[in-house]
Write a structure and sequence with these properties.
Blueprint (H helix, E strand, L loop, with lengths): L5 H15 L4 E7 L5 H11 L4 E6 L10 H7 L11 H10 L14 H15 L5 E6 L6 H12 L6 E8 L12 E3 L5 H9 L8 H11 L3 H7 L4 H7 L7 H13 L4 H13 L3 H11 L6 H6 L3 E4 L2 E4 L2 H10 L2 H14 L5 H10 L6 H16 L3 H14 L3 H17 L3 H20 L13 H17 L3 H13 L4 H18 L2 H14 L6 H17 L5 H13 L1 H5 L4 H11 L6 H10 L8 H13 L5 H18 L2 H18 L2 H18 L2 H17 L3 H18 L9 H10 L3 H18 L2 H14 L2 H15 L5 H17 L3 H18 L2 H13 L17 H11 L4 H8 L3 H15 L4 H9 L6
Parallel strand pairs: 1-4, 1-5, 2-3, 3-4
Antiparallel strand pairs: 6-7
Helix pairs in contact: 1-2, 4-5, 5-6, 7-8, 8-9, 9-11, 11-15, 12-13, 12-15, 12-16, 13-16, 16-17, 17-18, 18-19, 19-20, 20-21, 20-22, 21-22, 22-23, 22-24, 23-24, 24-25, 24-26, 25-26, 26-27, 26-29, 27-29, 29-30, 29-31, 31-32, 31-33, 32-33, 33-34, 33-35, 34-35, 35-36, 36-37, 37-38, 37-39, 38-39, ...
C-alpha cells in the first residue's frame, strides 16, 4: 500500500489513461534518496493493467558499461527490431552489441541510436500500449540515459507512457526539459501510517514526531532510523537539515553488521556484479562463497531475489555494502567478477580487473584501452573517456600513459565535458613533469609524449577554450603553439585555428597579421590538411579585413573536399562549412555540404554545437529550409547550454535572431538577440554583436520604422569601423541606404549605396555585388534603375540566397509601381511574394502583398493562408510528405515515430482543410490566387 501519494498517483494514472488512447506521456519523478520514487514507480506499474511494460533500473555497477541500461530495458522488445528502419536497427544492434550486429560505424551516432530507441518502442506499442519505466536514471550509463531522454522528448502520438525515477540533484540535468514531478517528504499522518505498518516493534508517537521532523518526512530514512538507539534518535532532533544519504547508509551499516561474514561476502559480490543472478552465482563460486548465503539478507529484507535477478532494497544499501568492505575485500570481489564474466564480455571483464588491482598492469591497461575503443565505435564517448582514463592509471610506460590520457581528454570533449577534458590534460602535463623530474637521464628513444600528441593536446586545449567562450585564452594558446611548433605544418594549423578565434573576436587586424605568417610558411608546408586550413584561414583573414580572400578560399575547396583526415576529425567538421559560408555563391562548396551531411552523425556532443551552428547559418542564408535552420539553431543552443559552450551559444542565439528578423518574428528576434548580446558582451564575441545589430535594424526596417532602423544601422557601422571589420558582407549598406531613402535622406542614401557598391565590386563575389546593385537601384536616378536591378538579378542567379533575391525583386517592383509601370511591377512583386511565402518571411510577404494589391493584382488574404498557421513541426512533416517521402521515411528523417508524423499530418490536414497528399502538395505550392 502506497501512503501519502494520492495526487502523484492520480497524475500518473491520467498519463496511463491517455497512453491507452494513443497520446504519449512522459514524466520524470525526482527527489532525494529514500523519498519514495521507486515505491511510486512500483505502484504505477501495478496499476498499468493491460500494458506491456519495459522496465530497467540504473545500476552503479554497470555505469561504465555502454548501453547496459538500454539493453536491460529493451530486451523484451528486441523481437520488433526488424520492423524499424534498417539504418536505425543496425545502429541500435551495434550499440547494444547484439550477436551478428553490423552496420557502418558512422551510423552509430547519438541521434540515430536515440531515434532507433523511439522507433523500437513505438513499433512494440503497435501490439498494445507500452509503459517504459526506468528507475535510478541518474545511475544509468550516460549513453543509455542520453538515448532514452532523446526518445522521450519526441514521444507524442503513440500509446506509450514513459516514467523515469531520478535522484536530485544528481540527475536533475538529465531530465531537463521533460515534464517533472518532484517528490518531497510525506506528511506527519502518512509518516505514522508508514511506521505503524512496518515490521517490528511499534514506534511511540513522540519518536514518530522526532523522526518526521528530522528527516522531513523521508520514508526510507524514517524506516531505517526507527530502530536506532535513543542517543541516535535524539541526535537527529537538532533543528538542522539531516543529510539523508549519509544517515541512511549509517543505518544500513548497523543492520549489515548483524549478518555473518559469509552473507556479507555474498552481498558484496552481488553489489559488485549487478542484478543478474547467474552472474552473481558464478562470481560467488569464483570467490569461494555459497550464493545461498544471500538467503539471510533476503530474510532481513535487504534484498529480493526473483525472476533471475538480485535487487537491493535501495541503491544506498548497495553503497553501504560496498563502502563497508575493506579495500582487499572489494578487490577480491571484483577479481571474482572478472573471472565469472562471459568470454565475449571483454568490456565488463576489463572494468572488473581494473578495480581488482592497485598497481600498474600493462595487460589490464590494454584491455581497458580496447574497451575504450569499443565505446568510441558505439558513440559512447563518456564511457570511452572513463575507460581510457583508467587505462592510463594502470599503464606503467610513460609514453603510452600520456597517449591514453590524451584520448581520455579527447573523448571527454566529444562527450561535451570540457571541464573534465582540461582536467585530464592538466593531469597529463603533471605526469610528464613528474616523469622527467624522476629520471636522472631519460632512456634513449623514450619520450613522455610524442610530438604529434603534444600538438593534439594544444589543439584540444584551444578548442575547449574557444568553444567555452575563452577566446582570448584560446588565441594565446595557439600563438604560443605556433611559435614553438616543430614544423611548418604544425605552425600553420595552429595559426589557422588562431584566425578562426579572431573571427569570433571580430579582430581583423590580428587576423591579417596571422595571414601574413601563414603565407610565409606556405612554401614549407607538406600535408594537404595544413595546406587546406592555411589557405582557408588566409582567405578568412583577408575577407574580414576587406582585402579580398576569395581566391585563397576557392583554392582551399578541392583540398577540403579530398582530404580524408579533415572529414574524420570532429573538431574540423565545421571548417568544411566555412568555404560556402564565405563565398556565398551557387557552385562553391556543393561537395563540402554533402560531406558534412554524410559525416555529421558521427560527431559527438562536444563537436555538435559548432557543427549545427554552421549548418544552420548555411540553411538560413540559402534556399534550404528555414524550418530546418531554426531546428538546428535550437538544437545547437540546447547542446551548447548543456556542455557550457558559450561561444556557440552566443553565436547560435545571434544567428537565430537574424533568422527571426528575416521571418518577421519580432518578439523572438528581440529575445534571442538580447540573450546573444549578453553572452557576446561577457566574452568579447564582437562578430555576434554585429549580427544582432544587423538583425535588429533589419527587423525595424521590415516593420515600417525606417528612422529607428537607420539609427541602429549607423551604430552597427561605427562598431564595425572600431573593430576594423571591413568585410562588405558584414556592412549593412543596402539596408541602411533603404532606410535613409524612406526617411527622405536621398543624398545620404546614394552616398551609402555608392560606397557599398564600390566595396562589393572590389570583393567581386556575387552575393555582395547583387546587394550593391540593389542598393544603387533603390537610390539612383530613374533612368539607371532598370539596368541596376537587372544586374542585381543576374548576380543573384549565381547565389543561393532566395531571401536576398526576393528583397531585390520587392525593391524593383516597388520602384516600377511608383513609376506607373504596374504590369512590369507585378512580375517582380509576384516572384517576391512567392519566395517570401515559401521561405516563411511573413512581414516581407505582407509588404509584397500590399504592393501587389496596389498594382491591381488580387492576392489571397494572408489571414486565410492556412500554411502560416502550421507549427514548425507540422510544416516540416508536411514538406517531407509533399516531397514524396513515406510516413516512415519522414519519421526517420525527423527523429519522430510514424504515429507522431501521422498526428502532425492530421493537424495539418485540419488546418488546411484538405484530406490527401496530393491536396497537401498543392496547398504548399498555391498561396497566391491571380485573376
Amino acid at each position: 500500500m502506497l501512503v501519502g501519494r494520492r495526487a502523484e498517483q492520480q497524475e500518473i494514472a491520467r498519463l496511463g489513461a491517455a497512453a491507452r488512447l494513443g497520446t504519449s506521456g512522459v514524466l520524470a519523478v525526482r527527489g532525494e534518496a529514500g523519498v519514495g520514487k521507486t515505491a511510486l514507480l512500483d505502484d504505477a506499474v501495478s496499476q498499468l493493467d493491460g500494458m506491456q511494460v519495459l522496465r530497467a533500473t540504473g545500476l552503479e555497477s554497470e555505469r561504465e558499461i555502454a548501453f547496459a541500461t538500454l539493453l536491460q530495458l529493451l530486451r523484451p522488445a528486441l523481437g520488433a527490431l526488424g520492423g524499424i528502419p534498417s539504418t536505425q536497427a543496425d545502429a541500435l544492434a551495434a550499440a547494444l552489441a547484439l550477436p551478428g550486429a553490423s552496420g557502418p560505424a558512422d551510423g552509430r551516432d547519438r541521434f540515430t541510436i536515440g531515434a532507433a530507441v523511439l522507433s523500437l518502442v513505438c513499433r512494440f506499442a503497435e501490439d498494445g500500449p507500452v509503459a517504459v519505466v526506468v528507475d535510478d536514471l541518474h545511475l544509468a550509463d550516460a549513453p543509455s540515459s542520453s538515448a532514452l531522454v532523446f526518445a522521450a522528448r519526441r514521444l507524442a502520438a503513440d500509446p506509450v507512457v514513459a516514467l523515469f525515477g531520478s535522484r536530485s540533484p544528481e540527475g536533475d540535468g538529465l531530465v531537463a526539459g521533460l515534464r517533472t514531478l518532484t517528490l518531497g517528504g510525506v506528511d506527519l499522518e502518512s509518516a505514522r501510517t508508514i511506521l505503524q505498518h512496518a515490521p517490528g516493534a511499534a514506534v511511540a508517537d513522540e519518536r514518530v514526531r522526532v523522526l518526521h521532523r528530522a528527516t522531513e518526512g523521508n520514508p526510507l530514512a524514517m524506516l531505517e532510523l526507527r530502530a536506532a538507539d535513543l542517543g541516535v534518535v535524539e541526535s537527529l532532533d537538532t533543528g538542522l537539515p539531516l543529510r539523508v544519504p549519509r544517515a541512511v547508509i549509517d543505518a544500513f551499516g548497523r543492520r549489515l553488521s548483524t549478518l555473518d561474514a559469509g552473507c556479507r561476502s555474498a552481498l558484496l559480490v552481488a553489489a559488485v556484479c549487478g542484478a543478474d543472478l547467474r552472474f552473481v552465482t558464478d562470481a560467488c563460486e569464483a570467490h569461494g562463497v555459497d550464493v545461498a548465503r544471500l538467503d539471510a539478507a533476503e530474510d532481513a529484507g535487504l534484498i529480493a531475489v526473483r525472476d533471475g535477478h538480485v535487487g537491493f532494497r535501495h541503491p544506498l544499501l548497495r553503497a553501504a555494502v560496498y563502502s563497508g568492505a575493506s579495500a582487499h575485500e572489494r578487490r577480491a570481489a571484483h577479481r571474482a567478477a572478472a573471472e565469472a564474466a562471459s568470454p565475449g564480455d571483454v568490456d565488463r571483464r576489463a572494468w572488473h580487473l581494473s578495480e581488482a588491482t592497485s598497481h600498474p598492469d600493462a595487460a589490464i591497461a590494454g584491455l581497458l584501452a580496447e574497451a575504450g575503443d569499443h565505446a568510441v565505435a558505439r558513440a559512447a564517448y563518456s564511457v570511452a573517456s572513463g575507460a581510457f582514463e583508467r587505462s592510463a592509471r594502470l599503464t606503467p610506460e610513460a609514453g603510452t600513459r600520456a597517449a591514453r590520457l590524451l584520448r581520455a581528454a579527447d573523448t571527454a570533449w566529444e562527450a561535451g565535458d570540457g571541464e573534465r577534458a582540461v582536467s585530464l590534460l592538466d593531469r597529463r602535463g603533471r605526469d610528464a613533469v613528474s616523469e622527467v623530474a624522476g629520471r636522472v637521464e631519460a632512456p634513449a628513444g623514450v619520450e613522455v609524449g610524442s610530438a604529434a600528441d603534444d600538438v593534439r593536446e594544444i589543439e584540444l586545449r584551444a578548442s575547449v577554450a574557444a568553444r567555452t567562450g575563452s577566446l582570448r585564452e584560446a588565441l594565446d594558446i595557439l600563438l604560443r603553439a605556433a611559435d614553438h611548433a616543430a614544423s611548418a605544418d604544425a605552425a600553420t594549423v595552429a595559426l589557422a585555428d588562431a584566425v578562426h578565434a579572431t573571427y569570433y573576436l571580430g579582430d581583423a587586424r590580428t587576423a591579417s597579421a596571422l595571414a601574413d605568417r601563414i603565407a610565409g610558411l606556405r612554401p614549407e608546408v607538406t600535408t594537404t590538411r595544413a595546406h587546406a586550413l592555411g589557405l582557408m584561414a588566409s582567405g578568412m583573414a583577408k575577407t574580414l579585413a576587406g582585402l579580398g580572400g576569395a581566391d585563397e578560399i576557392r583554392a582551399a575547396v578541392p583540398l577540403l573536399e579530398t582530404d580524408p583526415e579533415l572529414g574524420r576529425d570532429p573538431r574540423r567538421l565545421s571548417w568544411l562549412m566555412l568555404a560556402p559560408l564565405y563565398l556565398r555563391d551557387a557552385t562553391s562548396g556543393v561537395r563540402l555540404r554533402e560531406l558534412v551531411d554524410e559525416v555529421r552523425g558521427a560527431a559527438g556532443i562536444g563537436a555538435l554545437p559548432a557543427l549545427l551552428f554552421h549548418v544552420a547559418v548555411d540553411e538560413a542564408t540559402t534556399s534550404a529550409s528555414w524550418v530546418r535552420a531554426e531546428a538546428n539553431f535550437a538544437e545547437a543552443i540546447r547542446l551548447a547550454t548543456e556542455t557550457g559552450q558559450t561561444t556557440e551559444l552566443a553565436m547560435s542565439l545571434a544567428g537565430l535572431a537574424r533568422l527571426d528578423s528575416r521571418a518577421g518574428r519580432a518578439d523572438a528576434c528581440r529575445a534571442h538577440g538580447e540573450a546573444a548580446r549578453t553572452h557576446c558582451a561577457a566574452r568579447d564575441i564582437h562578430v555576434g554583436e554585429a549580427w544582432v545589430g544587423h538583425a535588429f535594424g533589419d527587423l525595424e526596417l521590415s516593420l515600417g520604422r525606417p528612422g529607428i532602423a537607420a539609427e541602429l544601422f549607423a551604430d552597427l557601422i561605427v562598431l564595425l569601423a572600431r573593430l576594423g571589420l571591413d568585410d562588405v558582407d558584414l556592412w549593412p549598406g543596402p539596408e541602411y541606404g533603404d532606410a535613409l531613402m524612406r526617411i527622405g535622406r536621398r543624398e545620404d542614401a546614394l552616398a551609402t549605396a555608392t560606397l557599398y557598391r564600390t566595396r562589393a565590386a572590389a570583393k567581386g563575389q556575387p552575393w555582395a555585388c547583387a546587394r550593391g546593385d540593389r542598393a544603387m537601384g533603390i537610390a539612383a536616378a530613374e533612368d539607371d534603375a532598370d539596368d541596376l536591378f537587372a544586374s542585381a538579378l543576374d548576380w543573384h542567379e549565381q547565389t543561393l540566397d532566395r531571401f536576398e533575391t526576393a528583397r531585390t525583386r520587392l525593391a524593383y517592383g516597388e520602384r516600377l509601381r511608383r513609376s506607373g509601370r504596374r504590369k512590369d511591377a507585378r512580375v517582380q512583386l509576384r516572384a517576391a511574394f512567392d519566395d517570401f511565402t515559401e521561405l516563411g518571411a511573413s512581414v516581407w510577404r505582407d509588404r509584397a502583398a500590399t504592393e501587389l494589391t496596389a498594382t491591381g493584382e488580387h492576392v489571397r488574404a494572408t489571414s486565410g493562408n492556412a500554411v502560416e498557421d502550421l507549427t514548425p513541426q507540422e510544416l516540416q512533416v508536411s514538406v517531407l510528405l509533399a516531397e514524396g517521402r513515406t510516413t516512415r521515411e519522414a519519421a526517420a528523417a525527423l527523429f519522430l515515430s510514424p504515429k507522431t508524423v501521422e498526428y502532425h499530418l492530421r493537424k495539418a490536414y485540419t488546418k488546411l482543410g484538405i484530406g490527401s497528399r496530393a491536396e497537401l502538395t498543392r496547398a504548399l505550392a498555391e498561396v497566391v490566387h491571380r485573376d
